[in-house]
């Protein structure tokens, strides 16, 4: 199985900060990665797919990059509504797997 | 508007069975793969399994943790997908989400999610 390791697992930041979350895969997954945002008591929300494609309706302050084994999610200017947990998911091979999550605290 | 609504989550004893339903609307259900994902209380997301569409013979995939115990099926005439859960264990306690998959740029990804249904396995 492909393991995804997210770092950091927790980060505290201020409004307006640039935030970067890393997701490392235990083996190469090309660009077959998605990023999700989850708020308490809610379903996950798709932010990015194919490593760098912004889902329709997601603010442009979110961006994704990477391929192979290392990926990043960047929030260019953190907003109060960005308080959430962020997960990466590999879509390359079965079983599909998620990273452990990164909690972003404003 | 795309909607997915899960139902069927209850309290069940270890060793018991349960069937979850996911009713979809607002899109051509038969065209899409559907995933089940779960989240244990206070924990991260865990992919449970996938139902492919008719074009791909309704084949399924499962996580190792549920393979042989859980079965995904679908009824395109009812725009619904089901998760049959047998031989339930306490560690299956979780909120179960269904999610529509969309294909673009070489990947299937979950673009719409239901609100989830809570399954509690306890004696």
Task: Please report the two chains with the greatest interface, counting residues with C-beta closer than 8 angstroms to the partner's C-beta.
Answer: A-B, 27 and 24 residues
**Fraction in beta strands of chain B:** over 45%
- The shape of chain B is globular
Q: Into which percentage range does the β-strand content of chain A fall?
A: over 45%
The whole-angstrom Rg of chain B is 14 Å
Q: Helix content range of the residues of chain A, please? A: under 10%
Structural class of chain A: mainly beta
Low-confidence stretches of chain A: none
User: Structural class, from helix and strand content of chain B?
Assistant: mainly beta
Q: Strand count, sense and closure of the main sheet of chain B? A: 7 strands, mixed
Write down how many β-strands of chain A occur, each being a DSSP E stretch of 2 or more residues: 11
Give the integer mean of the pLDDT values of chain A: 97
Low-confidence stretches of chain B: none
- The end-to-end distance of chain A, rounded to whole angstroms, is 34 Å
Count of alpha/pi helices of chain B: 0
User: Main beta sheet of chain A: strand number and arrangement?
Assistant: 7 strands, mixed
Rounded to an integer in angstroms, the radius of gyration calculated over CA atoms of chain A is 13 Å
Order of secondary-structure elements of chain B: EEEEEEEEEEE
Q: Give the N-to-C terminal Cα separation of chain B.
A: 40 Å
Oligomer: heterodimer
């Amino acid at each position: 199985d492909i393991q995804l390791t997210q770092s950091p697992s927790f980060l505290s930041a201020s409004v307006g900060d640039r935030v970067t979350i890393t997701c490392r895969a235990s083996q190469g997954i090309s660009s077959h990665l998605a990023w999700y945002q989850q708020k308490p008591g809610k379903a996950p929300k798709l932010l990015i797919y194919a490593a760098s494609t912004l889902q329709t309706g997601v603010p442009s302050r979110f961006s994704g990059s990477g391929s192979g084994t290392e990926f990043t999610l960047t929030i260019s200017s953190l907003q109060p509504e960005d308080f959430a947990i962020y997960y990466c998911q590999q879509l390359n091979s079965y079983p599909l797997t998620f990273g452990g999550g990164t909690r972003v605290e404003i | 508007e795309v909607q997915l609504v899960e139902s069927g989550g209850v309290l069940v004893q270890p060793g018991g069975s349960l069937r979850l339903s996911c009713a979809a609307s607002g899109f051509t259900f038969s065209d899409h793969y559907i995933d089940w994902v779960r989240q244990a209380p206070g924990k991260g997301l865990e992919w449970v399994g996938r139902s492919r569409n008719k074009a791909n013979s309704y084949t399924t995939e499962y996580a190792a943790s549920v393979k042989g115990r859980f079965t995904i099926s679908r009824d395109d005439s009812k725009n619904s997908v089901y998760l049959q859960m047998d031989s339930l264990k306490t560690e299956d306690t979780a909120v179960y989400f269904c999610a529509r998959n969309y294909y673009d740029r070489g990947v299937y990804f979950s673009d719409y999610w239901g609100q989830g249904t809570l399954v509690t396995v306890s004696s």
